[in-house]
Specification:
single chain, 645 residues, 5-stranded antiparallel sheet
Length: 645
């Protein structure tokens, strides 16, 4: 027995080999040793995973792990590192030996003997992690042999099944020889019988990644035999070729045809096409079905599938699953573009795990590559991390982002760069530059989700700027110019009306009456209807009176006249009209309007003199409250103040 603080270990020496069963009885463990296993333990598996720095580790899923203990074998001298846990019984049912460690058979828990001095056994969430500082020396044989996940389930006779895994060859001379042989066969086959050899050559091309060549041959075959368009296998091949040719929408047209809805081969390609279009929900749904048979495909296709699946998991914030899928990829067998995508995803996972230095190493590697679209994305992601971590200033970040936005156009990276740039401009108080960045995104792709998100953010900034007083730090002319240049961001409804009134009031306070009247007139002519239009017309009439233009005031009031306005609004408009008539030399008409107002007030239904006094007191209190809310020296609405005075 070995006793330590908080735990004990018991060693039982057996004369003959026996079988052990571990079970739970309430709060106790029961160990039964005999010739049979009473209840088998649930198996634990060893899964290869890739760390953020590219090193390899082993992950053992072990829900709710307990403590880690080090036991020394008194006879052999080995140190056995164990990880315990709560029930039910879960163990490694078959010992496995590697160059740097070995795992022992266990009825419950994990037992590891290290062969390398720097091997560590640690617990991370619901997993036991075995790793070394520079990674484990474990081969990537899983890709060469195909996925270990349900590989044998593919049925070659199933409708829509395509077998590409047995067509590949790594020898260039053999590849060229087979192409010549098949081309010779096609050339020496009668025209009406060339469909079969053409389809055979298209499969061979597709297995080696020559998607455009495969598409050309399949189109010729379809011209000779139009009935192929109803064949699930043909549609699957066309969808696969379109997917490898980076035409995801065209690929979906074929993959959605009859006979392929529940086809696992089609699910492989749907995962790729959905991820390419940013349809993460669809990609995730197809991924589980596609993983069942992706091991039957060539390494090129397996890598493409796993990259799409890993990217999908990153986008839905499932970084653990993303790392597990990424571990299925051997970067040494990937193409240059696939390797760059691999490093991008690796960097995203590392950054999400708090390993920003590892993430930057991955992104910098891609930035130096010849894959320009991915290099631009890596530059953008690296700038975000460096700015977030304080490695570079906001000014430096803006300068670099501006260069990236100017040099790279036409994809999601451009939109994300413009969004980040706009956010930094807002932080610096450079609102015009922020709104210009938004306009650039709208011109690039107005339908993109990133563009819509940026528009929502900048519209909120625009509203806050004019409603919360931030614009007061600008000169009135600059504020007016900013409003006019980006007035399409004015919110609809009362908030937009209030924004315009605030700006007009500020212009009036600065005696910029022409600018204020132009602003209000634009609202009347282009934005407003109904009572809101009549209200702004009353305000505009006051501005015209202040600018000694009574005829203009009368003209705008007549233009916006309508029945059944709220009584208070109708009273305001009558006051403006009476004053305009007086100033235009028609006092008799002005007096007539005033008499009509008094008559309506005195003949109000059920309105007593006392009631009128109470109503007048309420109006006076309302005006006082508005003035106090605006501050002791300035009325909330200078235009209204001018009317009352």
């Amino acid at each position: 027995m070995q006793s330590e603080e908080g735990w004990q270990a018991i060693r039982v020496d057996m004369e003959r080999q026996k079988l052990a069963t571990v079970g739970v009885d309430g709060s106790s463990w029961v160990l039964t040793i005999g010739n049979t296993i009473l209840e088998p333990s649930r198996p634990l598996s060893l899964e290869r995973t890739v760390r953020g720095d590219g090193g390899t580790a082993i992950s053992i899923p072990f829900r709710a792990p307990g403590q880690i203990h080090a036991l020394r074998d008194p006879f052999v001298g080995d140190v056995i590192t164990t990880v315990t846990g709560l029930g039910p019984a879960r163990g490694i049912l078959k010992p496995q030996v590697f160059a740097e460690f070995e795992t022992l058979m266990s009825a419950h828990g994990v037992a590891v003997i290290a062969k390398a001095d720097d091997l560590t056994v640690d617990v991370n969430g619901d997993s036991v992690i075995l790793e070394r500082p520079r990674g484990l020396a474990i081969s990537h044989g899983n890709l060469a042999q195909g996925s270990r996940v349900l590989k044998p389930v593919a049925d070659p006779s199933a409708p829509g099944h395509i077998d590409l895994g047995n067509l590949t060859t790594s020898d260039t001379e053999d590849f060229l020889r087979k192409i010549k042989e098949q081309e010779f066969t096609i050339a020496n086959t009668p025209l009406e019988q060339r469909r079969v050899p053409r389809m055979a050559l298209s499969r061979f091309y597709l297995a080696h990644g020559f998607a455009h060549e495969a598409l050309g041959l399949m189109r010729l075959a379809a011209e000779d035999a139009p009935a192929l368009a109803r064949d699930p296998s043909f549609n699957l091949l066309m969808g696969a070729a379109q997917a490898l040719a980076s035409r995801p929408r065209e690929a979906d047209d074929y993959l959605e045809r009859p006979g392929l809805a529940n086809n696992p081969d089609a699910a492989v390609w749907r995962t790729i096409t959905s991820a390419a279009q940013g349809n993460w929900t669809d990609a995730r749904m197809a991924m589980s079905r596609g993983r069942a048979i992706v091991g039957n495909y060539p390494t090129l296709v397996q890598t493409e599938f796993n990259l799409a699946a890993a990217r999908t998991m990153v986008e839905v914030n499932d970084y653990g699953q993303a790392a597990a899928v990424l571990s299925e990829i051997d970067p040494s067998l990937a193409t240059g573009k696939q390797a760059a995508r691999y490093d991008i995803i690796r960097g995203q996972i590392a950054d999400a795990s708090g390993r920003s230095r590892e993430a930057l190493t991955a992104f910098d590697l891609v930035e130096r590559s010849d894959e320009r679209p991915l290099a631009a994305e890596a530059t953008y992601r690296g700038l975000r991390i460096r700015h977030r971590d304080g490695d570079i200033t906001t000014t430096e970040t803006v300068e670099k982002l501006s260069g990236l936005a100017a040099s790279w156009r036409g994809d999601e990276t451009e939109l994300k760069t413009l969004r980040f740039l706009a956010q930094l401009h807002v932080q610096n108080g450079e609102y015009r530059k922020a709104f210009e960045a938004m306009q650039s995104a709208v011109q690039a792709d107005s339908d993109a989700d990133t563009t819509r998100l940026l528009q929502d953010e900048m519209e909120a900034v625009f509203a806050s700027l004019f409603l919360d007083g931030d614009v007061d730090s600008m000169s009135p002319i600059k504020a007016l110019a900013l409003f006019y240049d980006f007035r399409e961001m004015t919110p609809v409804g009362r908030r937009g009306d209030e924004m315009v009134r605030r700006l007009a009031n500020r212009l009036v306070a600065m005696d910029l009456l022409d600018q204020a009247s132009e602003l209000l007139r634009h609202q009347i002519d282009n934005r407003l209807k109904g009572a809101a239009r009549s209200q702004i017309a009353a305000d505009l009439g006051v501005v015209y009176l202040m600018d000694r233009k009574p005829e203009e005031a009368l003209r705008v009031l007549n233009k916006t006249r309508q029945a059944k306005l709220p009584r208070e609004l109708e009273r305001q408009r009558n006051m403006v009209e009476a004053r305009a008539l007086t100033e235009s030399g028609r006092p008799d008409l002005a007096l007539e309007i005033v008499r009509n107002m008094r008559a309506r007030m005195s003949s109000g239904s059920g309105r007593t003199r006392c009631g009128r006094r109470r109503a007048g007191a309420r109006r006076e209190s309302s005006w006082k409250a508005s003035s106090e809310a605006a501050g002791p020296t300035q009325s909330r609405w200078p235009i209204r103040s001018a009317l009352i005075s």
